[in-house]
Amino acid sequence: MAQKPNLHLNIFVANAGHHEAAWRYPRTQPERLGELSYYQEIARTAERGKFDSFFLGDRLALGNVRYRAEGRFDPMMLLAALTTCTERIGLVATQSTTYTEPYNLARQFASLDHLTGGRAGWNIVTSWDANAAGNFGMVQLISHAERYARAAEYLDVVMKLWDSWQDDATVIDREAGVYVDTTRVHRIDHHGAAFDVNGPFNIPRMPQGRPLLVQAGSSDDGRAFAATYAEAIFTAQQDLGEAQAFYNDIKTRATALGRDASRISILPGLCPIIGSTEAEAKAIEQELNDLTIPELGLLTLSQRFNGVDLSGFSLDEPVPLHALPRPKEIEGAKSRAQLTFDLIEREPGLTLRNLLRRFAAAAGHRVVAGTPEQVADHMIDWVERGAADGFNIMPAELPGGLTDVVDYVVPILQQRGVFRHEYTGTTLREHYGLDRPESRYT
């Protein structure tokens, strides 16, 4: 069995950075968001830092581009392009189970895994954006529960397709004139509630057997899905207690399902803002926050709470909690709505302006502004206290924020013996301490 490393690091790449005002910050380069070289630079930096993986999110609709820099390439296309400038770092793409078909998606990930020698990962999302639904001819959004039911069947289909070629199916017998032993290639004949797929697949079994399976939902449905299928989980918690509760819940659910919970890596989002002193880091954070545009924050908050209009409320008065739908009434991103609601309840008197600023840096993920030692201390503390297996690093600004982590934080983690000095495996599954799964036809 593959040996599990101490701590995992994933770089979540988002345009000019995760702070909504990053594109206005002098150190960023928003004019390069349409250039391949920009993403190549970030990928090389992360690989130099021995990060486990490079991750691209996605949204299938136009965002708030009036106030925010967005350059959303198709994740699969961009990651395929990055295969030429990287050798070891894993490449994780977000793909929706709501607006794609299983056969096409399975083929895309199998292709990426073959082209990278086993470095592909899939962040499984169910998609909740009403604007995205309109782009795919859906008049009405699918309910939260229905989306997860579809996702479970979807995943069942793609794993059957990935397994439909046995590992030894390609024989290349020149003398007999047989390239593939077709008795080792199997139809899947899946006929379910949402999908009818015959198979077999048209690509040999991939180097990893299947890509690393990643999931990011933290609602009850999301947690159940993650505990059943996910091998790495991206999550958002503001404080240690919340993170420990989520960590324990997922591991307990997974164990009850017969899984080895130690093989599931939970990576809370972390937005590090680094300075040579804590005061310098706080000043950078303040400078970024001062560049925020309240209209953007209000739009984002509105989208999180079923489109409720908050523009008529004073920014400097307490958040109008009475005007917000309760998280159980949300059909979209329930977990993010719950996180927002919990923060407001935990801090009575929190003004609307301060709430918007709290979410400006990393959309509700944990922000740590301090010295490299303080950031490293935070990471080690959360891992040692059962709140994380690593972190989904979300730099406030790119590419400089990642460079700061690689140059100043990673060496501290290495010195303290909690992070690798060199890659020990060649595949993404090996980076996460996971074995190659056997085919169901073995």
Radius of gyration: 22 Å
Q: If classified by CATH, what would the architecture be?
A: Alpha-Beta Barrel
- Counting H and I runs of at least 4 residues, what is the number of helices? 14
Structural class: alpha/beta
* Strand order in space, largest sheet: 1-2-3-4-9-10-11-13
Overall pLDDT: 92
SSE pattern: EHEHEHEHHEEEEEHEHEHHHHEHEHH
Global morphology:
globular
CATH class: Alpha Beta
Q: What summary fits the major beta sheet?
A: 8 strands, parallel, barrel
Summarize the structure.
The chain has 442 residues and is an alpha/beta fold.
Describe this protein's structure.
The structure is a single chain. The chain has a single domain, classed as TIM Barrel (Alpha-Beta Barrel), CATH 3.20.20.30. The chain is globular and about 80 Å long. The chain is α/β, with parallel strands linked by helices. α6 crosses α7, α9 packs across α11 and α12 crosses α13. Strands 1-2-3-4-9-10-11-13 form an 8-stranded parallel beta barrel, surrounded by 7 helices. The chain has a two-stranded antiparallel sheet with strand order 5-6. The chain has a two-stranded antiparallel ribbon with strand order 7-8. The model has no long low-confidence stretch (mean pLDDT 92). 38% of the residues lie in helices and 14% in strands.
